[in-house]
Amino acid sequence: MQKLELQLIDKSSDEIKSTIDLKNPETPEPTEPCMEYNIKLTLEYTDGTILERHDEFGPFYKEVNDVEKFDVKDENIEKRKDVDFEIKGKTLSISWSNLCGQSMAIYVGTESPIATLNKADLEKGEYTVELEGCQVISKEKVFIETFFTDEYKPGLNYYELAVAIKDIIVSPGVDDLDKPKLKEAELEIPKDWTNKKCRDMVEYYVIYASGTHRDDFLISGNSKDLSQFVIKDSPCSKVTVQVESRAKHDKNEKNILLSAQLITDHQGKILEPTLVQKDTSVRIDMGNCITAQIDFDLEVNGEDSSDKIIGPFPFDLAQIKTLKACVMYEAQLVDDNEKIGKPLEFKLPAKNFPPKLNVVYIDQENTAQFNVLGYEACEDVDTTQVEIKSKDNVTIEDSYCTGTGPCKHNSLVGLAEDKLTARVRVHFQDKTTSEWSESINLQENNIYFIRYNFYKII
Whole-model pTM? Predict the structure, then answer.
């Protein structure tokens, strides 16, 4: 026999990785334990006869009889450079590709793993860890280890090791920071912080924008008077104001801590929108901006009224059908579901509040009942006056009932009518009256006056 040779060939590329002369063996070159090999054994005789045998081998962990007891030597540990550790906010993302190990242990500043992954997990190629904010973890304490077993089992020697290349700085999240407050365009930054370590990692910025205009300023100290800002090119306008925290080590790490809509006066000076009441109407106090077309939504007692207040123009609260006289309410400006400015407590004055009329027919009594709505909470009502007119605007009924009624009628003086209208007003104990309600058509309410009696059309 002239030659006896063993070759290890990369199965994926057919590249010869190692050749061993079995007649004169030497220490073979180390092979990659995670690669699959073709084994080629060649025997060449002196007469030129060549015999070859082929087989397959690897990955190495498949060939070891008891992989759990396989002892990885320190010099054989693979130091991987292609594992990425990326922190964004409080989320640490770890990603990898082509790892040899079949399970993994992840360490982030701890003595024991904060997470362990099995073979199926590793196939995903990434893993995220949520960390506590406001901390710096040295890079030496952020690493992963991989093992030959399909599931992580404590006590085994790891085969691959990857360590972060820089310290992990975990920025504060929104919940880690105390929030600023806005009061009458005065921005107040908390003086006594719940977590000073978090505060030391960030800077506060105020940003305001109107149309295409935008400015931001670093806040120093514990307060900022926003009214000192003047947006000259945006008078009588809405201004969006935000307060952000920005991490000192990376200004792109931001948290929005406050967002509000303010307004500017005729000089561009920033103001907080304020509601002002007069009688039954409210308006936004905008100084000399008498024609501004700024609009906000209006909430009353926490419910959307489906109405908008536009600029400084009065809005009649009496048109909100659910409101009543003599009851205390709270009005609030709203923009994009954010409350704007201070709420306004108001009570609709009874004498300026027109009553609402509702008429129903009571079949078993052959009676029309006039219900006066909106004054149930008023204590100084004396009587309610009911006025019914013909189609020719002739009064054919003018009667009174005690308090706010209900007022019932089953006879009238007059001839048969098919088009009658009714309205009511309230008389107070001091001899003053409310406004008249809107007139309603009794025919449209299915009530007719015929020969002194009420009948309902069936």
Answer: 0.61
d(CA 177, CA 55): 64
The CA distance from 296 to 303, in Å, is 14
Contacts of residue 155, Cβ cutoff 8 Å, sequence gap at least 6: none
According to the model, what pLDDT value does residue 265 have? 86
Q: How far apart are CA 182 and CA 391, in angstroms?
A: 58
For 90, phi then psi, to 5°, come to: -110, 10
Distances (CA, A) of 370 to 32, 367, 383, 447: 96, 10, 13, 12
β-sheet bridge partners, residue 422: 388, 440
Reported as a single tens digit per residue, the pLDDT across 307-347 is 788 878 898 887 887 888 889 999 998 888 888 888 999 98
Contact 38, 54 (CB under 8 A): yes
Residues 6 or more apart from 227 whose CB is under 8 A from it?
A: 185, 186, 269, 270, 271
Taking the domain 69-170, which CATH number applies? 2.60.40
Q: 3-state class of 76 per DSSP? A: helix
Pick out the chain residues at pLDDT < 50.
1, 412-416, 448-458
Q: Which CATH class is domain 275-348?
A: mainly beta
d(CA 146, CA 106): 9
Instruction: Look at the domain 351-456 and name its fold.
Output: Immunoglobulin-like (2.60.40)
